[in-house]
């Protein structure tokens, strides 16, 4: 789950990262009222969960209270890169002498944590990595180890910082690392970390993405995980406990695993166009399959449904009952092809056949797509392959 | 005929008293797995499917000589249980559990390397040595009765089942099928699993079933190019995966061009692997290798 900037900034601040005074406003009046705490001049930032807000009108500056009223009013209720703005962050504008980058992230290669310090900030870090790799300095930490102060200062020194600034940069890295660990984050990032004309540091952005799998041990995190998913079907899927990704084709897909789902998309995509990716994971029950089938069929304009399941941990014979219930209740007329193999496959086939589902018993997904293509071309509805 | 697991391996089931643990224990026993013990704290003394249950791994190891462990424990308990299991001296652990926090996985990975244990997962279907034994949830009925000479390593669970079946149909039955786990951080690297197959005289070639996300396949390609002498067939799922979209489990995400199907295919092809564009093509390529089970 990605946090809003103001939520991340609050956590960073609590850990000791210097953050300019800020407040959150949902109306222009609240924005003006916030000035009492924040002080002028300010930066008004749309609180949407998408990058490059500055380039898309989501970040503006204001020098007077009138300007704050007018500009925050304009941003609130508008959309930034398709995301509607429900709140703005009003933050004190700070003077900039230099911009740095600091980030902590999971390094899948090393299976460890990477701490990154960049001497060029304010621009996309991937661009820096590509064009100026010498501006990025990294340190790998194997958890549960901490990032120690001397290690952080060592990284700062390596990047060319000296004296007071070296110590301050080191402190920010240690604080950021602490937030990263304490919140089970996938990424914690400040871009840019501003060096002021007086040598003071300010985090003028805050990115924090938390591992969904760890939310159970973070009661302090926002509870609106679902509301942060933009697409209605993707949101509904998350609610049921399955993964759905909307695509632009017309063949609905249900699979019992992510790899199988992607392979199914690969094979379908050779001849037809997948309408979605959907994987159930290992929690199939009759009810889950009922909800899942109903969900993928909500998409308008579908021409067919391909179901690709394996009964390993999943009781597919139970799942089949849920599928059949939807097909009957909704009187589904598009061809439905199912390949369901593994534990209790015969029972599964019998249940599905009864509802007119075309059963494929061959192990290849190609055979299932062949059957679906044939059905779409006007082939027999209830025959087996 | 196999790597890591055979019919003599003394297996421990953790979380054996849960609904899934119990059902899967039955399937594993029916397949021929030598399950000697189960562990569920607080349920010591119980008997599940004829298997004695202990309160701790140390007691189970002491009482039964268990040497490998398969996990059906909840995600929130996985890290704690892994540390207990490694401390009891077990060197092969299969973590079937999904949705394990990645910070926990990083800590378990560091510990596994420190003690020299092989851990599969998280989010793995486990390991199955055809005709001998299985740890995890791979359905036995998808494979022939006796093992062949094709090693299989898969990121994904259900796709491994399909590939195993395709190989069998191509008259190149698998020897051992290994699920390495589908999360972005895995407990044992693909290259390390290949090393086991390199050392197994009964495995003639290996099929890698990869998917978009991460760079396990790219790293394995370096090892294949320099040190792995057996033929490799590789299929990477996710050609139609849109950039920036998470496909189910967390590992399968392409971002900023990294971990794409193209980069993996390119690296593996350069290393000399034979590339299948669909799962069914794995069978076609296996037949051209002229290896029979």
Q: Layout of SSEs?
A:
The complex is a heterodimer of chains A (385) and B (293).
Chain A: H1 5-15, E1 22-25, H2 28-38, E2 42-46, E3 59-62, H3 65-75, E4 79-80, E5 83-84, E6 88-92, E7 98-107, E8 112-118, H4 125-131, E9 136-141, H5 149-158, H6 163-182, E10 185-195, E11 201-203, E12 207-210, H7 232-240, E13 243-246, E14 251-255, H8 258-271, E15 276-279, H9 286-296, E16 304-311, H10 316-329, E17 336-342, H11 345-354, E18 358-359, H12 365-376
Parallel strand pairs in A: 14-16, 16-17, 17-18
Antiparallel strand pairs in A: 1-6, 2-3, 2-6, 4-5, 7-8, 7-10, 8-9, 10-11, 10-12, 13-15
Chain B: E1 11-14, H1 19-31, E2 35-39, E3 47-48, E4 51-54, H2 57-64, E5 68-71, H3 78-87, E6 92-95, H4 102-115, E7 118-120, E8 126-129, E9 133-136, E10 150-154, H5 158-169, E11 174-179, H6 190-198, E12 205-211, H7 216-226, E13 232-237, H8 261-270, E14 274-276, H9 279-288
Parallel strand pairs in B: 1-2, 1-5, 2-4, 5-6, 6-7, 10-11, 10-12, 12-13, 13-14
Antiparallel strand pairs in B: 3-4, 8-9, 8-11
Helix pairs in contact in B: 3-4, 5-9, 6-7, 7-8
What features would you describe in this structure?
The complex is a heterodimer of chains A (385) and B (293). Chain A has 385 residues and is an alpha+beta fold. Chain A has three domains: 72 residues, Dna Ligase, domain 1 (2-Layer Sandwich), CATH 3.30.1490; 120 residues, 2-Layer Sandwich (D-amino Acid Aminotransferase, Chain A, domain 1); 148 residues, Rossmann fold, CATH 3.40.50.261. In chain A, 36% of the residues lie in helices and 24% in strands. Chain A has twelve helices and 18 strands. In chain A, the strands form five sheets. In chain A, strands 7, 8, 9, 10, 11 and 12 form a six-stranded antiparallel β-sheet that branches. Chain A has a four-stranded antiparallel β-sheet with strand order 1-6-2-3, covered by helices on one side. In chain A, α10 links the parallel β16 and β17. The longest helix of chain A is centred in the middle third of the chain and has 20 residues. Chain B is an alpha/beta fold and 293 residues long. Chain B has two domains: 123 residues, NAD(P)-binding Rossmann-like Domain (Rossmann fold, 3-Layer(aba) Sandwich); 151 residues, 3-Layer(aba) Sandwich (Rossmann fold), CATH 3.40.50. Chain B has nine helices and 14 strands. Chain B has a seven-stranded mixed β-sheet with strand order 3-4-2-1-5-6-7, with helices on both faces. In chain B, α6 runs parallel beside α7 and α7 packs parallel to α8. Classes of the chains: A alpha+beta (385), B alpha/beta (293). Chains A and B meet through α8 and β16 of A and α1, α4, α5 and α9 of B.
């Amino acid at each position: 789950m990605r946090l809003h900037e103001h939520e991340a900034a609050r956590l960073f601040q609590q850990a000791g990262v210097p953050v300019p005074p800020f407040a959150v406003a949902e109306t222009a009046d609240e924005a003006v009222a916030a000035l009492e705490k924040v002080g002028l001049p300010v930066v008004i930032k749309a609180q949407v969960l998408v990058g490059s807000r500055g380039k898309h009108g989501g970040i503006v500056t204001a020098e007077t209270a009138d300007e704050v009223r007018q500009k925050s009013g304009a941003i609130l209720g508008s959309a930034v890169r398709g995301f509607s703005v429900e709140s703005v962050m009003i933050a004190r504008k700070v003077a900039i002498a230099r911009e740095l980058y600091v980030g902590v992230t999971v390094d899948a290669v090393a299976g460890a944590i990477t701490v990154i310090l960049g001497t060029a900030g304010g621009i996309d870090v991937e661009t820096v990595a590509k064009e100026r790799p010498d501006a990025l300095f990294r340190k790998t930490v194997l958890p549960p180890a901490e990032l120690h102060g001397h290690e952080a200062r060592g990284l700062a020194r390596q990047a060319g910082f000296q004296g007071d600034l070296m110590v301050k940069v080191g402190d920010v890295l240690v604080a950021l690392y602490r937030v990263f660990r304490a919140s089970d984050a996938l990424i914690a990032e400040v871009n840019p970390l501003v060096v002021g004309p007086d040598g003071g540091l300010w985090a003028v952005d805050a990115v924090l993405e938390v591992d969904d799998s760890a939310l159970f041990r973070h009661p302090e995190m926002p509870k609106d995980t679902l509301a942060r998913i933009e697409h209605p079907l993707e949101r509904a899927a998350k609610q049921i406990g399955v993964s759905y990704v909307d695509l632009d084709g017309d063949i609905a897909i249900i699979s019992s695993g992510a790899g199988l789902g992607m392979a199914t998309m690969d094979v379908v995509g050779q001849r037809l166009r997948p309408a979605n990716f959907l994987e159930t994971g290992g929690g199939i029950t009759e009810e889950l399959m009922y909800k899942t089938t109903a969900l993928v069929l909500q998409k308008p304009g579908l021409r067919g449904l391909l179901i690709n399941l394996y009964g390993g941990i999943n009781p597919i014979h139970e799942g089949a009952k849920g599928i059949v219930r939807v097909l009957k209740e909704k009187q589904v007329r598009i061809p439905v092809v199912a390949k369901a193999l593994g534990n209790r496959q015969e029972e599964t086939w019998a249940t599905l056949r009864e509802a007119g589902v075309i059963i494929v018993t061959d192990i290849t997904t190609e055979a299932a797509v062949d059957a679906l293509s044939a059905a779409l071309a006007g082939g027999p509805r209830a025959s087996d392959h | 005929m196999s790597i890591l697991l055979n019919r003599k391996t003394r297996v421990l089931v953790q979380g054996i008293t849960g609904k899934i643990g119990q059902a899967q224990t039955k399937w594993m026993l029916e397949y021929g797995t030598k399950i000697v013990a189960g562990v569920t704290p607080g349920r010591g003394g119980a008997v599940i499917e004829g298997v004695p249950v202990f309160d701790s791994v140390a007691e189970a190891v002491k009482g039964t000589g268990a040497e490998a462990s398969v996990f059906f424990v909840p995600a929130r308990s996985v890290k704690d249980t892994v540390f207990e299991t490694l401390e009891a001296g077990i060197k092969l652990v299969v973590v079937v559990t999904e949705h394990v926090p990645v910070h926990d996985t990083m800590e378990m990975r560091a510990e596994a390397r420190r003690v020299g244990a092989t851990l599969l997962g998280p989010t793995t279907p486990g390991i199955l040595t055809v005709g001998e034994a299985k740890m995890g949830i791979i359905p036995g009925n998808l494979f022939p009765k006796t093992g062949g000479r094709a090693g299989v390593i898969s990121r994904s669970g259900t796709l491994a089942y399909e590939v195993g079946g395709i190989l069998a149909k191509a008259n190149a039955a698998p020897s051992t099928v290994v699920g390495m786990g589908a999360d972005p951080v895995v407990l044992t690297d693909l290259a390390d699993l290949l090393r086991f197959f390199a050392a197994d005289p009964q495995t003639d070639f290996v099929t890698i079933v990869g998917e978009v996300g991460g760079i396990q396949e790219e790293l394995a390609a370096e090892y294949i190019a320099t040190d792995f002498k057996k033929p490799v067939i590789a299929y990477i799922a996710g050609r139609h995966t849109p950039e920036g979209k998470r496909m189910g489990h967390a590992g399968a995400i392409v971002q900023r061009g990294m971990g794409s199907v193209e980069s993996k295919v390119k690296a593996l092809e350069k290393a000399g692997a034979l590339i299948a564009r669909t799962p069914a093509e794995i069978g076609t390529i296996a037949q051209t290798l002229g290896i029979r089970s």
